[in-house]
Amino acid sequence: MINLQIKENPEEYDAIIVGSGAGGGMAGYILAHAGQKVLMLEAGPYFDPAKDALQLRWPWESPRRGASTTRPFGDFDAAFGGWQLNGEPYTKVAGTDFEWFRARMLGGRTNHWGRISLRMGPEDFKPKDGVTDAWPITYDEVKPFYDRVDRLVGIYGTVEGIPNEPDGIFLKPPKPRLNELYITKGARKAGVTVIPGRGSVLTEALPGNKDRGVCFYCGQCGRSCKVYGDFSSSSCLVFPAMKTGNLTLVDNAMVREVLTNDEGLAVGVSYVNTTDMQEYTVKGKAVILGASACESARIMLNSKSSVHPAGVGNSSGLVGKYLHDSTGASLSGFLPQLMERKRYNEDGVGSVHIYSPWWLDNKNLSFPRGYHIEYGGGLHMPSYGFLNWVPEVNNHAAGATGQAKEKGGYGLGLKQDYRNFYGANIGMAGRGTALARKDNYCEIDPNRVDKFGIPVLRFHYKWANEEIAQAKHMQETFQSIMHEMGAVITSQIPGKDSLYGLEAPGKIIHEGGTTRMGDDPKKSVLNKWGQAHDCKNLFVVDAGPFVQQGDKNLTWTILALSMRTSEYILNQKTQLNS
Amino acid sequence: MNRRDTLKALGFLAAGSGIIANSCNNKKIDTAKLKLADKLPGVQDFEHARNIQITEQTFFSKHEFATITLLVDFIIPKDDISGSASEAGVPDFIEFMVKDLPEGQIPMRGGLKWLDVRSQKKYNNVFIECKQEEQFALLDEIAYPSKANPEVQQGVAFFTLLRNLTASGFFTSQMGVKDIGYVGNIPGVWNGVPQDVLKEHGFDLEGVI
């Protein structure tokens, strides 16, 4: 029999960080800059946007012209991974659904994310709806960290003074595109608020930062940025942390479990090198999980010992519970006013130029909380399938002699139709608060392991009436905005049978809640600092600690909370040493 | 870094000048002859290996490929602005796509056969051997979904698939991108909608946002 040799690294690090995305990256940045010796483990390969971004590539440089065969968001998108990873399955309880998106690479999903950077507001931390749970912390406690993230990373936007949509320290926002002017006008007529977008893209030089370039408006943030003009964890956090000399990065390191001692404290982690399948253990005075809400929960549940029989940090039995994504639904159309448009470069930034923060009072609605709306459309770079909608609607274009036209066709007339309709399309997508519920969860599948022999996750997630009602409301809003703009709706308007277009749980890639924080160790996994109640040197810094997301995309809050947790770790160490 | 440094870092700013140097690397990728050397940085090894493997296989027969070549030029013919779909390499693109997304193989192969059978029944010839007015007549049956006869529904579905593939292939080629007038993908500054366009659309006086 071949002996499975485990290689032990004798060095004891001050902290081991699992994961290099927003949460792990920020923890690495803060701790390394404070002089802590940090080991960062990333399950995927090294990735530097400066070298590896497929930014500024043309569609014909992809043999599939950007189609989404091997990457769910297209050939140029900067996410190595997707809904399914070869050899790393997950399962679902029959009758439930969850789509789990994983990016295995340095920086994780921050390489391709939408850069939409919204703060949660006072009522997101302390809801007044009587349905959703309150956090153990207030907006005012998090605000100083949001402010520091704004200054450290950079964000554009405008000061609006909307009560539950807190303002930040903003760079100038990009001006709206033509379709966005029409949308703004139509939405306001429909009673929907529209304000300039908020995104982590450097529309101006970031004061005090010499390492990052300024946005040059290619609109391709999703491909990651060669001049570090937007936020990726690698370019903004991990590389600067490595430059201190205090952070060591090990890539292709898939963590198996957190190792604990007889007192139940974390002493390190074990991992497998995904390229040569060798086993390793490393030692640390603290272990910080930032592997993604579900992956961190998986690691904790798989870290069983006599002190932690249900998995480390899981004496409450709540690790994996309260899993929630955002709700999402969308509608597409085109604006006849934009047909035969003049051509010019309107690539703009790759994040949103405008958006609609939640604008209603819930008192008269059948669901708590709300959603925001993101808008799309314009003269974008051609890619696979981008004109498929034209033959479905080209009966709206007058024929050569002014007579009514049929949909479809071929030949010179069709070729001209493609030109006439290009850039006239518009889209809108709602992103809303999904409720954190105990009975939506991930757990360890008792029967399955992945190719590394690590037990895999099994998901159990169902939408409830509140989320379906929210999607219905989205569709009504979208139609009313389309109507006020004079747009033609091109997508099928989804009805009750398709849950009003409500995307499957997980599809919005805002997983959170699996290691929720709280003051009561029986009702939460972590305390309000992101520290495990039953393992004092174990911390979680991804979206696992979220008690309940708002409708705000969660990255900015992950960054703020990870910064807060990291400084708590430093304070604890100072107190121990004094 | 300021914007000048940014452009310099990208190699877009010629040393000592303020002029944006001739942009982008316009090297054409010939999808029919993809070689390992063409691997772009940031493309994963398994993706590139897959691309190579796909280009080494042939799916369509000579007859099928000839039919596709004829059909895509019916869909997007040459005009004063640009060339035809086949001149832009669309048949090779379609050959690649049915291997890349194999769910398209039966609809394409079967659809081509359906068209030949229909053509044989009506005109005693396979499609490519028919006279041009016969070919037009066959396409007119299946190119307009809302007025098509229920008995040719399968033909309509085939033609819709082929039309979408043709438009994808053509308008993402160098020729097609130029034709449709996409002028982005180059470093610059976005200062909002040009004044003349604002005026044309009545936004010059409104000051929205």
Automatic annotation (TrEMBL), chain A:
Domain of life: Bacteria
InterPro entries in UniProt: FAD/NAD-bd_sf (IPR036188), GMC_OxRdtase_N (IPR000172), GMC_OxRtase_C (IPR007867), P2Ox-like (IPR051473)
Signal peptide: none
Domain annotation Glucose-methanol-choline oxidoreductase N-terminal: ranges: 94-325
GO-annotated molecular function: flavin adenine dinucleotide binding; oxidoreductase activity, acting on CH-OH group of donors
Annotated ranges, domain Glucose-methanol-choline oxidoreductase C-terminal: 444-561
Cofactor dependency: FAD
Keyword annotations: FAD, Flavoprotein, Oxidoreductase
Any Pfam family matching the protein: GMC_oxred_N
Family (UniProt): Belongs to the GMC oxidoreductase family.
Protein name: GMC family oxidoreductase
UniProtKB/TrEMBL annotation, chain B:
Protein name, per record: Gluconate 2-dehydrogenase subunit 3 family protein
Pfam families: Gluconate_2-dh3
InterPro entries referenced in this protein's UniProt entry, alphabetically: Gluconate_2DH_su3 (IPR027056)
